[in-house]
């Protein structure tokens, strides 16, 4: 499972958004690809760190953790506002909610 | 491939479109270049529009405290394809301030001739009463109770007999006219450098297949918007230190309001009332309130569960005309412009005043709960709650803007401004700028009408000169 896909399932579960995951991942990938280059570099580096940091706690990167654990981590980081990971989560949440709600509304 | 033109215009937004049209109408050979693609006009405000029509798919932001998200068009028609279509002439008092600040003298007769022409071509008109959404009229009623000035803002829209509206963006108006006069439009053309030789301007660009190509022209009009025009000039090595300085924008703060009655419906589009009681510093109005935007607004404050009441929810903004300014810079090795913006103390006070007044108005209009665009779990049940909150902690606020300007200003003194009063570079009279960059300061209202009028007036001055 790739990192973006692991974020999509966790954030959709957190917000009870039962929409087509594939479409959301496509949109998310496009948004990351189109970030201004200097923001993209920082973003990709920070998300790489975010993914790997959980190896120290759970012996697995974020994307390999169970869905419930990923949801708990997202809620924890949002609550504690752990910089810069809270900003990464904010970006993922914004994009995933935007597209997921839109798909649900189109139905 | 034909590669030599008398005039090339880079950017097909409102400024570039009207300039191209005016130059082609006068019988000149004009090539209009656009980085994005050509799409049918719509006002869906959805993710497909974001990916197709927005620069960087809408992921751009200014750096500073706080970050401000901004959106720019990146398609044929530019900003006119993605904005709300609300039209204003620049207030006379603001125009006079600009003249003093930048040592300019606008010929009122010529300027208002341009405004009139634009209003006729874009069919500036009021929304039929039957179509005005409740989310809009409800703030008009709130203003009445408070004794505040509020008015319906006309838009560039045409309506058929069934009341279906079509936005009169550039793809519906000036661009077809430009092509009818023999102009050539080329899409998916990303210009990355302007160079000079003794005879002409050389335009370096990536074509649709990402191959590097060149065009040559005698005269060049740059209209890539307030961020990308200074960026292109800097990347091309133009020396003026005023290029990219003095960027202005209209930062907006939002409340999502929950009412007891239905105010929203699917495809509601853009509400049309604006509160003018605090103009020119502060403007208040209603935003796009589609379900997906409401979801995100509610999630800021961890209140997404209220989305099930979406028909009773609408989002409102207060927008300030700031005293502070920003910069656009090109950094070595990076392909995107680096944009910064800083508030002054007065801006922070005005923003807080705007937020307070917006809250007061919404509660007076019947709102039961307000969800602010703040990154923390909070909601307000009364105006008193809002007054107690410290909005001066800027890094908590989620601000955004779609109005950007003044990054390559016109001015009467070569020692202080990048452009002369006719809109060409002081250092090169064959290169003109025709977009929001040329504005002297915030127009305090939606800027498209003013940008177009100034671009048109400058194009006519250019025609009388060559």
Segments of chain B where pLDDT lies below 50 for 5+ residues? Answer: none
Largest sheet of chain B: 8 strands, mixed
- Based on the structure given, which CATH architecture of the largest domain in chain B is correct? 3-Layer(bba) Sandwich
Please state the structural category of chain B: alpha+beta
Count of alpha/pi helices of chain B: 11
Radius of gyration of chain B: 22 Å
Report strand % of chain A.
under 5%
Q: What is the first-to-last residue Cα distance of chain A?
A: 27 Å
Subunit organisation of the chains: heterodimer
Terminal residue distance of chain B: 27 Å
Strand % of chain B is 15-25%
The H-level CATH homologous superfamily of the largest domain in chain B, spelled out, is: FAD/NAD(P)-binding domain
- Shape descriptor of chain B reads globular
What is the CATH fold-level name of the largest domain in chain B? FAD/NAD(P)-binding domain
Helix proportion of chain A? over 70%
Structural class of chain A: mainly alpha
Could you list the spans of chain A in which at least 5 consecutive residues all have pLDDT below 50? none
Descriptive account of the structure:
The complex is a heterodimer of chains A (107) and B (466). Chain A has helices at residues 3-14, 21-33, 37-53, 55-58, 67-80, 85-106. Chain A has 107 residues and is an all-alpha fold. Chain A has one domain. In chain A, α1 packs across α2. The mean pLDDT of chain A is 93. Chain B has 466 residues and is of the alpha+beta class. Chain B folds into two domains: 1-39 and 75-85 and 88-121 and 169-245 and 405-466, FAD/NAD(P)-binding domain (3-Layer(bba) Sandwich), CATH 3.50.50.60; 56-71 and 127-167 and 251-402, Cholesterol Oxidase, domain 2 (2-Layer Sandwich). Chain B has helices at 14-25, 47-53, 92-102, 108-121, 134-146, 174-180, 225-235, 291-300, 345-364, 383-388, 448-465, and strands spanning 4-10, 30-33, 60-62, 68-70, 124-125, 150-152, 155-159, 165-167, 184-186, 190-196, 201-206, 212-222, 245-249, 252-259, 273-275, 282-286, 313-320, 326-329, 338-341, 367-372, 399-401, 404-405, 424-425, 428-433. In chain B, the strands form five sheets. In chain B, strands 1, 2, 9, 10, 11, 12, 23 and 24 form an eight-stranded mixed beta sheet that branches. A six-stranded antiparallel beta sheet of chain B has the order 6-15-16-17-14-20, with helices on both faces. Chain B is globular. Chain B starts with a strand and ends with a helix. The mean pLDDT of chain B is 95.
